[in-house]
Design a protein that fits this description.
signal; cell outer membrane; membrane; 60s Ribosomal Protein L30, Chain: A; five-stranded mixed sheet; alpha+beta; OmpA-like
Length: about 220
């Protein structure tokens, strides 16, 4: 029972480290996300080390061993995401497509108006090459899952927006799988108007809310 208190403290510390990871800001340091991955991995590794311990004097030693192993794994994930994000920014030719590396996943945001005509769920022909570039990237980095999430503004009924966002996410998924991405890696779904990133009171805000997000999460 002696291991319970330090275990809870370590777990809280690991969760705090994860919560402090920025989700939308890059500092420009090419090793930023590698460092953040190492930090999070160290905290989670410390918890793992304490879980497997038999308590007492071994707690601190096992926590340190777990932290070292976790830091190495986290740094490897962060470094891989750095490379994948850089490749995506280079290969996707539209500067309105935003690629954010959170340290634990990549979020690719594509505004609705460059992907679809109004009220349409058919991908514009000129954007298919950008999606094929994304597919090539996903095939180059195969150890990940891919969530494709459609979003709308609040114009129209909530049920219509939910259906439209789902159909748009499905259309993007179809282009990616048609370009060779394993469909077992992909989940496509809509959130309708439920998750705005800007105010729906202005045309500019509504335009920001109409988007498709592709969330890439490493599995190893």
């Amino acid at each position: 029972m002696r291991a319970k208190t330090p275990l809870l403290v370590a777990a809280a510390g690991a969760l705090a480290l994860a919560a402090c990871t920025p989700t939308t800001t890059d500092t420009g340091d090419p090793r930023q996300r590698t460092k953040e991955g190492a930090l999070i991995g160290a905290g989670l590794g410390a918890v793992t080390g304490m879980i497997v311990t038999d308590g007492g004097k071994r707690d601190a030693r096992d926590a340190l061993v777990g932290a070292a192993v976790g830091a190495a794994a986290g740094a490897a994930i962060g470094s891989g995401l750095d490379r994948q994000a850089a490749d995506l920014r280079r290969d996707m030719g539209n500067d309105r497509i935003n690629v954010v590396n959170t340290g634990s996943q990549l979020v690719v945001t594509m505004p609705q108006d460059i992907l679809f005509a109004i009220d349409s769920a058919t991908v514009r022909p000129d954007l298919r090459e950008d999606l094929r570039a994304l597919a090539r990237n996903l095939n180059q980095y195969p150890n990940s899952t891919v969530d494709i999430i459609g979003h709308t503004d609040n114009t129209g009924s909530a049920s219509y927006n939910q259906d439209l966002s789902s159909r748009r996410a499905g259309s993007v998924a179809a282009v990616l799988t048609g370009a060779g991405v394993d469909p077992r890696r992909i989940r496509a779904y809509g959130r309708g108007e439920e998750q705005p990133v800007a105010s729906n009171l202005t045309p500019e805000g509504r335009a920001q809310n109409r988007r498709v997000e592709i969330v890439i999460r490493p599995t190893t």
